[in-house]
Amino acid sequence: xxxxxxxxxxxxxxxxxxxxxxxxxxxxxxxxxxxxxxxxxxxxxxxxxxxxxxxxxxxxxxxxxxxxxxxxxxxxxxxxxxxxxxxxxxxxxxxxxxxxxxxxxxxxxxxxxxxxxxxxxxxxxxxxxxxxxxxxxxxxxxxxxxxxxxxxxxxxxxxxxxxxxxxxxxxxxxxxxxxxxxxxxxxxxxxxxxxxxxxxxxxxxxxxxxxxxxxxxxxxxxxxxxxxxxxxxxxxxxxxxxxxxxxxxxxxxxxxxxxxxxxxxxxxxxxxxxxxxxxxxxxxxxxxxxxxxxxxxxxxxxxxxxxxxxxxxx
Length: 314
What we know:
Blueprint: H1 8-17, H2 30-44, E1 55-63, E2 66-74, E3 81-85, H3 99-109, E4 112-116, H4 128-143, E5 149-154, H5 156-171, E6 178-182, H6 193-197, H7 206-217, E7 242-249, H8 253-265, E8 270-279, H9 290-313
Parallel strand pairs: 3-4, 3-5, 5-6, 6-7, 7-8
Antiparallel strand pairs: 1-2, 2-4
Helix pairs in contact: 4-5
């Protein structure tokens, strides 16, 4: 599947974080998953000085089902608005855990970044996460008008970002000028080549991914919905231009590549960033791994190009 080995710094990082004994995702409680996520993020960002930006405020979006916390990172002269959904298998993650990455995204793209603290499963099943995502986008566009609008996210957040773009297209919602999808979950094809061919050295076993995806998109309410998994959409025509960052050693890789091909076939401009030496979650450990840091910089360059495309189309 991938002849380029995993970056040695990634191997070392993962080995340091590996628990003494592997436990299946299905055998942990949501709070245990969340605690593990907090501990991992603390390790990834240990000793890192967060970048300074023009301003940071915590605000509240009046969502359809209640208040949605968001954190707004302001650039002095913003080039765009980026609404960002964090990763974490729809079950973990927070505004605080995303803070270092969001500050860098704001600083490096010179954009307003709205980081969304959407409701998570299993306490808040589908469609709660996508409803919060969509409502936050509507709010952000009204709050920061006259800027190119990008939706973005990593992993589960990338899924929410592109599903929100689908929903906005279908419901005549806000204009979205671009989507930044960082190793997003696309479908529930557990027999895709990358699902079965990658070695056990790759984070997230096939069964662990099955557990998380089924928890989110396998419920009765989510059945068949393209707003749960975007591969279910009959057509991708009319979606905004996309940047898709794909990790070489990621079980989601095959589905992401297939989604990029479908977007292109539908006439959607797509930039694919394939980082062969990296694994899922590299966006989080960029502060500790030079190869991931370089991938972040490449992503920033692609976002700049997406912003300029949005400015031109507006």
